[in-house]
Amino acid sequence: LDLFDTLDVDGGGTIDFEELVVGICKLRGDARRSDIVGVGLVVRSTQKLLAQFSEHATEVLDASAATLQTARRTIKETACDVKEVKKCMEEVLARAPRLRITEHSASVGLRNSRASA
Fold this sequence. Notes:
single chain
């Protein structure tokens, strides 16, 4: 039985902080060299996993930031397009003041065109 197995009380293959503290408190006597080496290996492995996680999280966050920037640009461009369409519609309506298209008149016109077809 090595130190890791001793500290991994629930046998889950990982040692959480509580298991570490409780396990160390239960140990008696001086640490053997193999125990110290084992703890060092566990710490090194944990540091490596944390570095990999940090790198992956940074990549995900960078990709998310790029996606958000693209979305902002698209929204801004769309807003400009909508403003241009609105301006054009206002110009058309200003030139033909009698021409007023409403939802009601458009649907009536659609029904009339179907009836005459």
